[in-house]
Design brief:
single chain, Beta Polymerase, domain 2, 4 helices, 6 strands, alpha+beta
Length: about 130
């Protein structure tokens, strides 16, 4: 069985989601929120939500997460949407999904409100790189 097909431990999944959050914070993303969907949905364990300041910033944040996750921990997104438009970038890492929004779309979709039953996970201040 390929390594990518092996289910990771809860601690590993949480660490990867926290690392992606740290990348977003390092790249000046706004309003970074990590939601635990455990017990709420079976589609993934976490939603990581952030905002950029412009289409260019949203694209840059998405690219940075993809590049740094691959470089730092060998993780590649299984599915990517919206990167060319820069309005709402979705990076699906299976166990967690990264959503990077343009502020107007984040306000419009209010994804945190849609997943109000999800628990907000505190972001770790220092995720070792």
């Amino acid at each position: 069985m390929p390594a990518s097909a092996v289910r990771q431990s809860e601690a590993q999944i949480t660490e990867l989601a926290q690392r992606a959050a740290a990348i977003l914070i390092d790249r000046k993303a706004n309003d970074v929120v990590l939601l635990s969907l455990k017990g709420v949905s079976d589609m993934t364990d976490y939603f990581l939500i952030a905002s950029g300041t412009s289409d260019t910033h949203v694209r840059s944040l998405g690219n940075s997460v993809m590049e740094d996750m691959k470089k730092q921990v060998g993780q590649t997104a299984h599915h990517v949407e919206g990167l060319s438009q820069g309005r709402w970038v979705l990076l699906d890492y299976v166990d967690f999904v990264v959503h990077v929004f343009h502020p107007t779309l984040r306000n419009f979709y209010q994804i945190e409100r849609l997943w109000a039953d999800a628990q907000v996970v505190p972001l770790t201040a220092d995720v070792s790189r």
